[in-house]
Amino acid sequence: MSHRLRPASRHARALLKRMTLAEKIGQLTMITLGDQPTGPIADPVTIAEVHAGRVGSVLNLAGPERIAQVQALARATRLGIPLVFGLDVVHGYRTVFPVPIAEAGAFDPTLWRETARVAAAEARRQGIHLTFAPMLDIARDPRWGRIVEGPGEDPWLAARFAAAKVTGFQGADLAAPDALAATAKHFVAYGAAVAGRDYAGAEVSATSLAEVYLPPFRAAVEAGVAAVMPAFSDIDGVPMTAHAALIAGRLRRVWGFDGVVISDWDAIGQLVAHGVAADLAEAAALALRAGVDIDMVSAAYRRGLPEALDRGLVEPEAIDAAVLRVLALKERLGLFEAEPVAPAGPPPAAEAAGRRALARHAAERSTVLLHDRSSLLPVGSPRRIAVIGPFARAAGGGSDRIGPWAGLGDPDQASSLPAALRARFPDAEIVSRVGVDAHRPGRRDIAGAVAAARQADLVLLCLGEPADWSGEAASRAEPGLPGDQPALAEAIFALERPTVLILTGGRPLIASAVIDRAGTALMAWFGGTEIAPALAGILAGDVPAGGRLPVSWPRSIGQIPIFFAERPSGRPFAPDNPFTSHYLDQPNAPHFPFGHGGTPGAFALSDLAVAPVTVGPAEEIAIAVTVASTAARAEDAVVFVFIQALKALPNRPVLELRAVERVALAPGETRRATLRLPAAALDRLGDGAVPEPGRYAIRVGLDADRSRHLVAAVTLETR
After folding, report:
1. Which candidate, 490, 309, 500, 495, places its Cα nearest to that of 387?
2. Segment (H or E) for 45
3. Measured between alpha carbons, how far is 629 from 603 in angstroms, rounded to an integer?
4. What is the pLDDT of residue 199?
């Protein structure tokens, strides 16, 4: 592994020798001084503690003037140690990009890096040093609200997302004026929450932990991530904030991570509620011994560590080691040098325009065409467009376009869909009616919406879930269309007008009847600042909807959890045998498979060739396939390469993703695409994986539907 431990600097060790115990613990204490709490504040700490040198980092404080004032207090203390200022810059700071689950569906690492780079530059310019992103939790249960913040269901994809986001946020030098320290979270298996309920425990096997949930974090460490945040949840009864085997053991000793570990909000104090600590002293000792350096807002370190020392629960050396890691981060951020002063006023017009153009490109690349059964796209030149539904508002509602965790993005800067349509279709009459409330039944004017839609050439039915129903603490037992939205949809469909369904949300929405009734269905997710112009361009045919699903989309709640990489059964489904793995009342298959999207029938794959057919562990496999376009416009085919180990003990999933290639094709163009896969990619994803000799199937397709794959075989030999 290229990542190596860095020894503490002479400057850091000199500072450590001069510190009192209170000053040391202060460096391990993160407080909130801002207006964006993400949980209850167990022990409010005032700014006087900063002035006394008993705080090391601050979160949720925004605005360069306010940050500079608080930083000046820290620099005026006895030792003059500066503060780290952190904020949740998840999918943008001022310019808001699509939420992570949407952007993951772009299958485009260059885009992931670019959007993180812009977010980092905007935030650092305003005095922010550290972001609590990327979130790398594998999520296979759309009931869990935080599925919106991560890269979906697949560990291979999540590992590439991790590397791209860490590189984008941090750049080559954390001290640069456009770099943010990244935090990989939530270590680990937070997305496996029981029943999809936030903060619940996780039931995962050792194999799943190693091969599914850990690989994205290892990729982040190998990319040089500055910080890691443990999950709120537990594994096998051990809360992650106290999990020494995984933090001090796997993360630090095995992987060589030498950055800081930051607790989640009040997570150390919550070890008492978990039932593993009797008081704050025990909680603080458990977390510190596990390897957690910074206590976020619980004050467990501030109030508990002195007593833990007196009771012999922790050693002074453990505190010193954590302090040195915090000081090393501050050195890497260049905080001991004079920080640049943020330029006054907004960025130059050209710079702002470039960022909005990137946001629009990201929205186009992330929007998924679920189906176009009525061939409505492009929509031509309609004379009257009715924009119907709770996400059709001509004014307001911007937070439902930019989504949760939108940094300091201004919802009013995200234009509405009616406004974007007027700009793109200037000769059309645009009418909009909300019809129903986005949240709950009862507040409705379905008759008014139907009247507006009756005379339209084209109806855009804008349904989904609001931003505050997605994200942290937003688990849903029934992740469908809230309130009276299904009734509104039924009334609109009864008109038999050409109807495009546009879904907004942060998770796959279980609404099969509504989705299938629409002539065309698009998943816009929470697409960010520029989602409305992006949708207008997609409808007009200026650009295709470039996204593909990074998760399997269930037909019903009963299928959850659902994902393509399930392990083989001794009785796999067979249609002519009732005693095989299946449901009596619906198909096993999801409504839409992982990787689904793009213009229906636009691409065909043929002539798969793999060479050599017998490889050694250090060799490379060339995978060639012909990709043909029948589309009427330029569009990318997204080609997926899966592997399948035909024999292994323990067994392996029926599909494992190992490569993705976007192939840009002109209308009617045919290209021979070649992907090169190292033979080592046939290994399991977990730590210490070794090449398993034997036969492997190489499966190539446009999504994870195995029935449509081209298949070839290779044999791996040990040489």
Report:
1. 500
2. none
3. 5
4. 94
Largest CA distance in the chain: 79
Same domain (yes/no): 404, 526: yes
Q: What is the pLDDT of residue 341?
A: 66
361 shares a domain with 329: no
In a domain, 329, yes or no: yes
Q: Under 8 Å CB-to-CB from 603, ≥6 apart: which residues?
A: 627, 628, 629, 630, 631, 637, 665, 702
Lowest mean pLDDT among 44-58, 332-346, 432-446, 607-621: 332-346
Average the pLDDT over 666-682 and give the result. 95
- From residue 285, alpha-carbon distances to 243, 344, 641 in Å are 12, 45, 46
d(CA 300, CA 26): 11
Given a contact cutoff of 8 angstroms between Cβ atoms, the answer to whether 225 and 183 are in contact is yes
Q: 264 catalytic, yes or no? A: yes
What's the token pair of residue 624?
A: 């060639």
Q: Judge if 553 and 625 occupy the same domain.
A: no
Q: Residue 469: inside a domain, yes or no? A: yes
Q: Are residues 360 and 304 in the same domain?
A: no
Q: How far is CA 134 from the centre of its chain?
A: 7
Position of tokens 């458990």?
286
Nearest one of 220, 227, 250 to 238, comparing CA atoms: 250
Give alpha helix (H) positions in 171-233. 206-208, 215-222
State residue 18's pLDDT score.
97
524: which 2 tokens?
């816009």
Least Cα distance to 594 among 179, 142, 292 occurs for: 142
Q: Are residues 372 and 418 in the same domain?
A: yes
Q: What average pLDDT does the chain have?
A: 94
- Annotated catalytic residue: which of 88, 141, 154, 264? 264
Q: Under a CB-based contact definition with an 8 Å cutoff, are residues 557 and 478 in contact?
A: yes
Q: Give the tokens for residue 41.
A: 């504040």
Give the domain range for residue 79. 9-83+281-340
d(CA 393, CA 384): 17
Contact between 200 and 194 (Cβ < 8 Å): yes
Band of the pLDDT at 578, cuts 50, 70, 90?
very high
Mean pLDDT throughout 251-268?
97
The verdict on residue 657 lying in a domain is: yes
How many domains are contained in the chain? 3
pLDDT tens-digit readout, 303-351: 999 999 999 999 999 999 999 999 999 999 999 998 766 666 677 788 8
- Least Cα distance to 208 among 232, 189, 231, 228 occurs for 189
pLDDT, tens digit (0-9, with 9 covering 90-100), for 452-461: 999 999 999 9
Q: Does residue 244 sit in helix, strand or coil?
A: coil
117 within domain boundaries: no
Whether residues 367 and 304 share a domain: the answer is no
Q: Among candidates 371, 698, 701, 392, which has minimal Cα distance to 553?
A: 371
Q: What is the pTM of this model?
A: 0.96
> What pLDDT, on the 0 to 100 scale, is given for residue 1?
32
